Amino acid sequence: MIDFHTHTPAWNTVSWLGGATFGxxxxxxxxxxxxxxxxxxxxxxxLFNPTPKANDELAAFVRAHPDRLAGFGTVTxxxxxxxxxxERMFGELGLKGMKLxxxxxxxxxxxxxxxxxxxxxxxxxxxxxxxxGTPPYSTPSQIAALARRxxxxxxxxxxxxxxxxxxxxxxxxxxxPNLYLCICGTPPYAARTILAEAxxxxxxxxTDAGLSDQASQDYAAARVREIDGWGITAQxxxxxxxxxxxxLLDAA
Amino acid sequence: xxxDAHVRIGPGRSGxxxxxxxxxxxxxxxxxxxxxxxxxxxxxxxxxxxNDQVTAAAAASGGRLVPYAVANPWARGDAVxxxxxxxxxxxRALAVDPALQGFDLLDGLVDPLLAFAQESGWPVYVRTGxxxxxxxxxxxxxxxxxxxxxxxxxxxxxxxxxxxxxxALRHAPNLYADTSYAPWDTVLSEFARDPEIGxxxxxxxxxxxxxxxxxxxxxxxxxxxxxxxxxxxxxxxxERLLD
Lengths: 252, 243
Hints:
The structure holds 2 protein chains of 2 kinds. In chain A, strands 1-2-3-4-5-6-7-8 form an 8-stranded parallel sheet. The longest helix of chain A has 18 residues, at 234-251. The radius of gyration of chain A is 16 Å and the shape is globular. In chain A, helix 4 (82-90) runs parallel beside helix 6 (114-123). Chain A is an alpha/beta fold. Chain A has a single domain, classed as TIM Barrel, CATH 3.20.20. Chain A is built from 11 helices and 8 strands. Chain B is of the alpha/beta class. Chain B has a single domain, classed as TIM Barrel. In chain B, strands 1-2-3-4-5-6-7-8 form an 8-stranded parallel sheet, sandwiched between helices. In chain B, helix 8 (162-171) links the parallel strand 6 and strand 7. In chain B, helix 4 runs parallel beside helix 6 and helix 7 packs parallel to helix 8. The interface between A and B is medium-sized, with 33 and 28 residues.
């Protein structure tokens, strides 16, 4: 099983998210306990302060288990060095994708500064994952508009529209060929509908692990267990947890 | 005593919940009582049909099911009359949903319904989340306008407005958090350890049919808090609000 949405600890940031610190071996221990074979790991500090240092620290974290952890870095799109930093992420640092959080990081998906960055990610065969589900800058249709500008780039809605925009997330995934959807914090009834109606190869799953007050990431473990109660087929489950994320990650 | 503070009965978009299925789930999970609200269709449109369904189900439940009443605030005087009709049939709380019913929490439309709830001694459930007219802080301001009413902040702003939930709870002492969707190891712990909030201001709900009820209950039974606090969350506080 592949968890497509996890975080490192926040090493340099104090925020309302709080969260316990943990080492990479503890994190792999959490993965083992939940039978997660591989995880996409996103920076936590980079949500608030998207710096090269945040990417360096993320890269060091995932480098300890390259067969199990895939790092997605981040940038401030308007920063004059953002394109060069994106090239460094996929070159020197060996990261597999880009994570953007438009409402926390303070930009719109329509800003032209994103275009050369996306072309670097696409050229490197990488993946773009964005926070979604929240106005004003993280609605699924805004992210789909970016995906349409970069049709070679796989773009992942990181939260499947959450509680109030999941129907929009589903519709955008249906109409946008290079847009994928990660069920992560999406309510179970929405997950069930998405799995029934979205293109079968486009649905992923993530726990958002890494933000817990406990190093054992209790809520993330509960989210994995909760899948048993969603009322989905074994085929849907296997596609979401195994086949779809592997196909995307192995191409990156 | 475990009381589920909010489920919806009847048809909605993307699924619904029948009384038989609810009672089977309650039996399986050891939930003693549940507060039942009309489903999405009835909340938005067929208020009377929904109120009839939940009050009839409650009347046949031997006290196990406690009905909410709904009325679209745009119906103004007719909405209050519908609440009165539902009260006569046994309704014991008010549920409102700014997203489904199309009003702003502070635009005044809902106030006649709140006056009726106050006169009736009813708690009020308000569905919150990310729609801009259903976020937690305006609800706190509304609650401060009605200090003798108890408000349950349905879904506690899940998910991106969890960030506003604790400030809202601090702003209005008559506002209560709802546990549905909220991890104990991030959101609920923040409420419990805050000296201005505490576990006594948190009420358990499954929010069925949108959730996996066993997972909602497991998050509360897994939560490492004192037994007295857990008893308050699982039903003690809500029982007091209903009395």
